[in-house]
Amino acid sequence: MIHDARAFWLRSPGVGELRPVTLSTPGPDEVLVRSLYSGVSRGTETLVFTGSVPPGQYTAMRAPFQEGDFPAPVKYGYLSVGVVEAGPAALRGRTVFCLHPHQSAYVVPASAVTPVPDDVPAARAVLAGTVETAVNALWDAAPLVGDRVSVVGGGMVGCSVAALLARFPGVRVELVDADPARAAVASALGVDFALPAAATGGRDLVVHASATAAGLQRSLDLLAPEGTVVELSWYGDRPVELSLGGAFHAGRLTIRSSQVGTVSPARASRRDFADRLTLALELLADPVFDALLTGRSRFAELPAVLARLASGDLPALCHLISYDEETPCSA
Asked: Which of these, 34, 38, 194, 219, is most buried using a 10 Å CB contact count?
């Protein structure tokens, strides 16, 4: 039985460290999980790492099993995959996903873990939380057969949305990003790619996930009359300025927010959080999602990795953290 673990903590904005943890003995309705992988959600976690969560959003931004408070010290993260070492018989030995901070082992209620399907590799399963966000966004957006859709912002969430949209009959998807390197990711996902200045206009729907005012403005500019922008970005404490004096009113354009903290109203009467996460894990059977795993490091290197991600020195979509200390680092 595992009794000791290590957890990543943000000691102060911009400074992370690993701290020892003494684990409790799991109760009858709890599980002990030994971590295999966790994923760094670059957008949200770099906001947390740099201390950029607005005070008014401290409660809304709390992650399950978070310890401490914003801005720091705080234990944060929510993309963890591991093996159940102890707990109910139906879960023992199963690979599971949990919305848990970066930690080498942990004890949580059995209801907090979701079994990973046998056809989904453990490393890919860390994307479950991000694909769940994409599922919720598409429940909100409700694209129709044959729609012309752009996804502005080729990060983890934007690419997950694009990957799911590529499955819709007759939908032509264009991923729009300022980084030309995202063209290779778009190709792997089976969608078109364009730089912002060359993006195709007249779109029925635009999903925005760049977390920039320029990206949101470009999203509006790409819409056909009566079109909708579904806004997925989290801006932290940064103000957003838009120019709404052009086609916004004349074209009767819509900006609609989408947030994974609640199940989309379009499905809330028939689906709950567990249903949504289970669906996300089932969708991850598609190997196309491996294109979103763009780097790997050991858990011991996580404090330095987060600093490099926050500074932009380490470009990534989802950076994978391995808890097998013998795994070579590829960061």
From this structure: 219
Furthest-apart CA pair in the chain: how many Å?
65
Contact 18, 33 (CB under 8 A): no
What are the tokens at 64? Answer: 């399950």
Question: Between vectors from CA 263 to CA 252 and to CA 170, what angle results, nearest 5°?
Answer: 55
Determine contact, residues 48/74, Cβ cutoff 8 Å: yes
The two three-digit tokens of residue 204, written as one number? 């029925």
Burial class (CB in 10 A: 0-12, 13-18, 19+), 227: buried
Token pair for residue 48?
Answer: 């947390």
Report the C-alpha gap between 187 and 29 in whole angstroms: 45
Cβ atoms of 13 and 49 closer than 8 Å: yes
Angle between helices 42-49 and 302-311 (to 10 degrees): 100
The answer to whether the CB of 106 falls within 8 A of the CB of 5 is yes
E-assigned strand segments in the chain: 4-12, 15-22, 30-41, 67-68, 74-75, 80-86, 95-98, 105-109, 113-115, 148-152, 172-176, 192-194, 203-208, 223-231, 254-257, 293-298, 318-322
pLDDT in tens, the chain (331 residues): 788 999 999 999 999 999 999 999 999 999 999 999 999 988 889 989 999 998 988 998 899 999 999 999 999 999 999 999 999 999 999 999 999 999 999 999 999 999 999 999 999 999 999 999 999 999 999 999 999 999 999 999 999 999 999 999 999 999 999 999 999 999 999 999 999 999 999 999 999 999 999 999 999 999 999 999 999 998 877 789 999 988 899 999 999 999 898 999 999 999 999 999 999 999 999 999 999 999 999 999 999 999 999 999 998 899 999 998 633 333 3
Asked if 161 contacts 149 with a C-beta cutoff of 8 angstroms, the reply is no
The number of angstroms, rounded, from the C-alpha of 107 to the middle of its chain's C-alpha atoms is: 23
Residue 2 half-sphere exposure, CB side, CA atoms within 13 Å?
Answer: 21
